[in-house]
């Protein structure tokens, strides 16, 4: 799945604000994926569905296109 990149600084600021606000929800789990050597953010990963009844979680992740296919998330 792909979607358009942020076209403006405001798009990015809105997304960051959305992420920050989501932390106030009880069951929000979201992390930045960054390069180990220089802490450059290259994507994020989050729990998109959590079923405590069966102790299962569905993860979702996204990487900047330049990092696709480089083995950073191999399942």
UniProtKB/TrEMBL annotation:
Annotated GO MF terms: acyltransferase activity, transferring groups other than amino-acyl groups
Positions of the N-acetyltransferase domain: 3-72
A Pfam family the protein falls into: Acetyltransf_3
Source organism superkingdom: Bacteria
Recorded coiled-coil stretches: none
Name of the protein in its database record: GNAT family N-acetyltransferase
Organism lineage: Bacteria, Bacillati, Bacillota, Bacilli, Lactobacillales
